[in-house]
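hey can u check if this looks right to u? its 440 residues, i copy pasted from the old doc so theres a chance i mangled smth
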Amino acid sequence: MDAARLPGTSATDQVVAHVDMDCFYAACERRREPALEGEPLVVGMGYENGEVHGAVATASYEAREYGVESAMAISEALERLPRKVAAADDPDLSVDEAGFYRPVDMDHYEAVASEVKTILHDAAEVVREVSIDEAYLDVTDDVAWDEAESWAATLKSTIESEVGVVASVGVAPTMSAAKVASDYDKPDGLVVVRPGDVREFFADLPVEEVHGVGPVTARELAALDIETAGDLAAADPETLDARFGERGLEIRRYARGEDTRSVTPRGDPKSLSRESAFTEAVEDSEEKRRKVRTLASAVADRAHRKEARYQTIGIKVVEPPFDVNTRARSLPGPVDDADLVESVALDLLTEFEDAAVRKVGVRVSNLDFSVGEQARLSGFDGADASTGDSETTADGAVPESDSEGQVSLTEFEGAAAERERADDATTQERAGQASLGDFN
C-alpha cells in the first residue's frame, strides 16, 4: 500500500468495498433447508426447538414484517409470529401468519462464512474481516471507478452461485461511506458512490445512517436540530466537540465524506486457501485432479509470498447441492513446499475419484510466520494420518483442527448483554442481525 493511503493521510484515491451478507444466519439455514425460502424465519440464540426461552439472533425480512427484531426475546417474537407448527395445531391462530424458528448453529455458519471468505480473498489482496458476515476490501490497485459496478456485480454473483447466500455490496472511496452504501439498498443491494459524490450521497440520509451514530446519539443530535447526515455535515464543529468530544468531530467528518482510514487486515491469517467451482458437477477424475493441481500451486505461491510456512494441508470437496467434505493431513512441522502441497492434496482427493463434484478447494493452515528452520519430513509418510484427517460433514461444518475463529455461544450471549447496555446500537443491529463477534 503506497504512502498516500497510510492511516492519517489522504484516502481519496482508495476504492473500498464493504461486503455485508443479507440475513446471514437465516440464509445459512435456508441453504440446507431450501423449503424455508420465502418463509418467515427466526434464528434464536439460547433457543431450543419448541421452547420459548432465548433471544433473536436474526430475523428474515419476511419475519421482520411481523415486528420481529434482533435481540428481541423469543417469547415476544412468538407473540408477534407464532411457530408454524403451533399455528397449525391451534384453530385460533392463522397458518398464514406464522413462521419457522431455528436454533443458532455456529459450526454451520462458520463453515459457510469460510466459503465466502475464500471468495473475498480471491477478489482482493487486502481484506479486513470485521465479523462473521461482513468485510472491507481494498481494491484500489485492481479496480478503476468505471469498472467498480461490474466488479461488484461479479463478486455478488460468485458468492451467490458458489456458496448459495446473498451479499449486498457498497463501493466508495472511504470505509465509512462503503459501509453505508452496502446497507443502502438491502437486500441484494449494489451501490457505488464515486469520489466527490460522498457528501451528496449522505445529505438526505437519516443521521443514524452515519457510521458511529446509534439511536441515543441520534436523539441527542435531534435535540440540536440535526436530523440528517447533511445537517451533521454542516453542523458547527465547536458545538459537536462540546457535546460529544472527539467522537462528535469524527461523525461529522464521516458525514462530510472525510475518512482517512485505510483497510488493514486484522493480524496474520490462520489459513490460506483457494477454491474453484466447475460449470456443472464433474465426475471425470483427471479434470478434478487438474483443478486441484492449479489450486495447490496458487495456495503454495500465496503462502510463499506471505512468507508463511504451514503444518496442515487440506482439501474441500463440495458435492451437489452443497454437501461439503473436508480432508486434511498434518505434517511433522511447518514447511514451505509447493510440491508437497500438490502431492498431499491429490492424495486426499483420491477418496472422491468417482464422486460428482461441483467445487474443490485446497487449504494450508496452522501457519507459522516466524523465521526458522524448516521441519524435516523424513517421518511424514509414517505419521498417523488419522490424526490429521477430518470428518465428512453434510452441512459444511469445519472440523475442529481446521476451524477458524469460532465464537462460542457464551461469548455471543455476553456480547448481546453488552449491546443492550450500550448507549448506541450498531449498524449491525439496524440491519436486523445480532453480532456474534469477529470473524477471526
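Confidence is low (pLDDT under 50) at residues 1-11, 378-432, 434-440.
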